[in-house]
Design brief:
Elements lengths: L5 H12 L11 E5 L2 E14 L9 H10 L6 E13 L2 E5 L14 H7 L9 E3 L5 H4 L15 E5 H8 L2 H4 L6 H14 L3 E4 L4 E3 L2 E5 L8 E5 L5 E3 L9 H4 L11 H18 L2 E3 L8 E7 L2 E6 L2
Parallel strand pairs: 4-5, 5-6, 6-7, 11-12
Antiparallel strand pairs: 1-2, 2-3, 3-4, 8-9, 9-10, 10-11, 12-13, 13-14
This protein binds zinc ion.
The site of zinc ion (ZN) has 6 residues, from helix 4.
Length: about 300
Amino acid sequence: MTALTRRSFLATTAAGLAATALPAFAAPTTFKHGAFEVTVVSDGHLVLPVSFLATDAPQKERDAVFKEAGLSGPQYNSPTNVTLLRRDNELILIDMGSGGRFMPTAGRLWDNLQAAGIDKSKITKVIFTHGHPDHLWGAVDEFDELQIPNATFHVAANEWNFWEGDNALRGLPPERAGFVTGARRNYAALKDRVKMMKPGDEVVPGVHVLDTPGHTQGHVSLALAGGDGLIIAGDVLTHAIVSFRYPQWRPAADHVPDQAVATRKKLLDRLATDRSRLIGFHLPYPGHGMVERKDGAYRFVSVA
Ligand SMILES: [Zn+2]
């Protein structure tokens, strides 16, 4: 695990901003999948230390793949792709972005939706992959009030219990205590409208909850019916080259690294075997693609 304090994390991030233009409006991408209309909306991007991508990788392989991926500086921009599903009368948001309190380069979801003519008050359901800031903190506004107070919020019971339980403080590096405070603040705002879910559940017809733990204790992905399937994978695969070629490497953001590695390998195998579509929250916008086997590992192939 990288020795990184919350202060240095934020300072590094702030320093990176001088060289990082704030994201402009990005028009959402929409395509059909089975009975669903799928729209990917950008929440902007995160600015992260490159060292986050592989904490324990052999130096030689790491240098080579970072060079190939254009990761030459100390930081990189990680896209944040929020998925919106439309089916009949349901408008379902998968994750809610960062909101205004995580990083100045993120939290663009609501503006981007509005600019695209999508009325957020029409969203009927929200399904969370996990409780990290870039997926959950957009639930509330600057007054800690829900952005969409009439929606129903679906949270994996294991994830809710992790953040609300004592293990959240014991089980995370102390510099991430702010993540616990933030998760609890957002969960408190939505607790009267929350429905717990568990792997195997069908939240709406054609949307199944997939057990993909490790990135966080209760991390889930969503499997959409139709064609060869479409998996909205949250943070199982966070980099378009590194996560696919070296699924065994341990990103700093994974809470339970060995479990995250096992989950990553299992999901890659499933995606390559089934030829399913994939949407990755942190893959290059819009994060939509497929997985192919290559040289004993995998590669990500974007789909326009
Ligand atoms: Zn994330």
